[in-house]
Write a structure and sequence with these properties.
- Strand 3 and strand 4 form a beta hairpin.
- A 5-stranded mixed beta sheet has the order 1-2-5-4-3.
- It is α/β, with parallel strands linked by helices and about 150 residues long.
- Helix 1 crosses helix 2.
- The protein has a single domain, classed as NADH:ubiquinone oxidoreductase Nqo5 subunit (Beta Polymerase, domain 2).
- It is globular, with a radius of gyration of 16 Å.
């Protein structure tokens, strides 16, 4: 399967929630979708297209909290990344751990460091965030004040 085939199948599956495509190069494609479709998209890419989740990354941007779900396709040696943007004020996303159980660790890390509320996750306790940090301090968020040492 080629990257173009994968992207075409994702677009067909997601329909109106497919927003944009960015081809970085022959081996890396970014597919932007609505956040509400992330579980369906991940399930399709993982189970039907046999993509393997490499990781989930997140970053704070002017547009919102960006989450990137990076899938590798061994047979073709390429990556397709599903990209969603979450609202700064109340960033929420549905967990994909029921589709890919190991994703729960990365989802908890994203929650700790970016303040994303991961819905329907089996364990929402702190994972890597230092207990001494205030609950509302997210180290990877831009524009926040540094916590004061007391």
């Amino acid at each position: 399967m080629t990257p173009d085939n994968v992207v075409e199948k994702i677009e067909e599956k997601i329909g109106d929630d497919y927003l944009a495509l960015r081809k970085q190069n022959e081996k890396r494609y970014y597919v932007e979708i609505e956040a509400a479709s992330i579980v369906e998209a991940v399930q399709f890419v993982y189970q039907e297209l046999e993509g393997r989740l490499a990781t989930i990354t997140g970053r704070d941007t002017e547009a919102g909290i960006q989450l990137l779900y990076h899938f590798g396709f061994e047979s073709g040696g390429f990556f397709v990344t599903l990209r969603i943007i979450l609202d700064h004020e109340s960033p929420r996303v549905d967990s994909i751990h029921e589709v890919i159980p190991g994703a729960a660790y990365v989802e908890r890390e994203i929650s700790d460091f970016l303040g994303v509320k991961v819905e329907n996750i089996s364990d929402s306790s702190k994972f890597l965030k230092f207990d001494g940090l205030p609950d509302d301090h997210y180290p990877l968020r831009q524009g926040g004040e540094e916590p004061k040492n007391e």
